[in-house]
Inverse folding.
């Protein structure tokens, strides 16, 4: 979470999660802009974001790429809105680092010819029961399983 001045873009407040995500301590962020921190990978993404905020006053789930302190490019999902803080227009933003999720979507999918036979079973809503049941099916090399969880 960050709060930045809309007038000059300087960070007024940041939380620990933001600091961890970009790798800077709070003291090195407060009073500086995202541009000074080399945060944006593409200035065009930032420009597009501000076009949306100026038109709509709020932005939800804006995907963008940013750099952390080490220069590693990450992917974020950003929501922000204009707020008034002590008479000054500011931007309240919340971002989630979705880099790992994006990498998972890009992994190649290998296709396998699965057997026609499939199994369906019912189990209680206990993680241990589900885990143990799956282990049993895995030992028997059963590859298609439909698990129906019921409240017990």
């Amino acid at each position: 979470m960050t709060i930045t001045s809309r007038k000059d873009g300087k960070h007024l407040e940041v939380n620990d999660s933001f600091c961890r995500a970009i790798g800077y301590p709070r003291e090195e962020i407060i009073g500086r802009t995202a541009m000074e921190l080399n945060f944006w990978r593409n200035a065009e993404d930032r420009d597009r974001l501000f076009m949306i905020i100026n038109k709509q006053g709020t932005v939800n789930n804006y995907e963008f790429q940013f750099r952390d302190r080490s220069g590693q490019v990450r992917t974020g999902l950003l929501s922000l809105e204009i707020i008034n803080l002590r008479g000054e227009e500011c931007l309240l933003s919340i971002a989630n680092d979705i880099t790992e999720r994006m990498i998972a979507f890009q992994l190649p999918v290998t296709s396998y010819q699965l057997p026609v036979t499939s199994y369906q079973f019912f189990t209680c809503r206990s993680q241990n029961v589900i885990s143990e049941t799956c282990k049993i099916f895995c030992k028997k090399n059963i590859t298609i399983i439909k698990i129906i969880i019921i409240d017990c």
In short: The first helix runs from residue 16 to 22.
